[in-house]
Known about the structure:
Layout: H1 6-15, H2 19-36, H3 44-53, H4 57-76, H5 85-93, H6 97-116
Amino acid sequence: MKERNIGVAIILTLVTCGIYGIYWFIAITDDARLASGDTQAPSGGIAFLLTLVTCGIYGIYWAYKMGKTIMMAKQKANLPAEDNSVLYLILQFVGLGIINYALIQNELNQFAGKETGVRA
C-alpha cells in the first residue's frame, strides 16, 4: 500500500482532465481491499468497469461500500473506526466523487504510515 499526497493527486486529476482520477479510483479501491483483507470485493479495475457499464450507478454503491470497507480495515488494524459510508454515498450522489477520493486516501494513508512506522 502506497501513501499518496492528496493535494498532488487532486491537481493531477484536474490537470489531466480526469485521467489520473481513473488511476486514483483503481488504486484506492485496491488499497482498501488489501487493507481490509476482503478478497471477495471486486478489484479496482472491475469496480471502474462496472461504474462505466452502469453509467455511474455502481460508483454510488462503490462509495457506500468503500466506507464499510475502510471501517472494517480500521477495526482489523485496531485503529479508531467510524462509519463514513453515508457521507461517501451522499458526496458521490451529488457529483463530488473527487472529495470521496481525497477522504478515502486520507484514511488509507494512515494504514500506509502504520506499515512503515511513520505515522500512527
